Amino acid sequence: MTAAVIANPVPSQDLATLNWIRDWDVPGLSAFFTVVSLLTSLKAGLVYGVVGLTGLLIARQQKTALAFVVVGAAAAAASFLGDYTLGDLVDRSQPVAGGAVSSYPSGHVFGGTVFFGFLAFFPIQHRLERRILIPVVMLSVLLIVAVGPARIHQGSHWPSDVAAGYLLAGILLLFLFLLYRRYIETGFGLGLVYSRFFAAVKRARSRNAAR
Questions:
Q1: Distances in Å between the alpha carbon of 170 and those of 64, 114, 144, 164?
Q2: C-alpha distances in Å from residue 200, one per residue of 72, 94, 192, 209
Q3: Residues 33, 153: contact at Cβ < 8 Å?
Q4: Residue 24 contacts by C-beta under 8 Å, 6 or more apart in sequence?
Q5: How far is CA 87 from each of CA 26, 80, 110, 157, 178, rounded to the nearest angstrom?
Q6: Which side of the chain, N or C, has fewer Cβ within a 10 Å radius?
Q7: Is residue 98 a contact partner of residue 114, using CB atoms and an 8 Å limit?
Q8: CATH architecture of the domain with range 31-206
Q9: CA 152, 154, 10 angle in degrees (round to 5)?
Q10: For the segment 151-193, what is each residue's pLDDT rounded down to a tens digit?
């Protein structure tokens, strides 16, 4: 896909799809797409990360917290490589908004799909109650499906930017799903490290309290 975009930065299919989606005129659609873009932005992702990690640590879910950090780090690294490596190769500006930053691939689509894709996978993997599982999965799927058209409708990305974002996210998610399942099953030998670390923290707190 990247090679095709380099060879022809604005293919006719891209232009036709872009114009078709931007012509959607449904009351409230623009506002909805604005919210979707906000919820899948980098700033929102950072907030999700801080809140999620804090909540897991407070709940003493250290093993899950480490997995959360690994997922976030992998997504951030892949996003960085995608934006700066593929972006430099393609060097294509946004269709409407313009700007100096390459629009290929879509960071919103990539990041949003990875985060909400993993969020949908989590309750399924751990077989949470249906009253939790169903709303989480439905909301995640809605945002994943909507973020692509949202970025095109707002003129921030070409359809091929969005397609590349989905493709990269799908590849990373497949890897993360397999890695997380393996981690849950084996812990990668980190269980003993957890036990010793938190036992040491507990002893230190006890000594400080005794003083």
A1: 22, 8, 11, 10
A2: 27, 52, 12, 14
A3: yes
A4: 149, 153
A5: 32, 10, 13, 12, 28
A6: C
A7: no
A8: Up-down Bundle (1.20)
A9: 45
A10: 999 888 889 889 988 998 998 899 888 888 887 777 655 454 5
Kindly report whether the global pTM for this prediction surpasses the value 0.70: yes
- Amino acid identity for residue 153 in this structure: H
CB contact at 8 A, 137 and 98: no
Other C-beta atoms within 10 Å of 8: how many?
Answer: 12
Does residue 36 contact residue 150 with C-beta atoms inside 8 Å?
A: yes
Which 3 state secondary structure label does DSSP give 21?
helix
Q: What is the largest CA-CA distance in the chain?
A: 74
- pLDDT digits over 131-143, tens only? 888 999 999 999 9
The single-letter code of the amino acid at 144 is: I
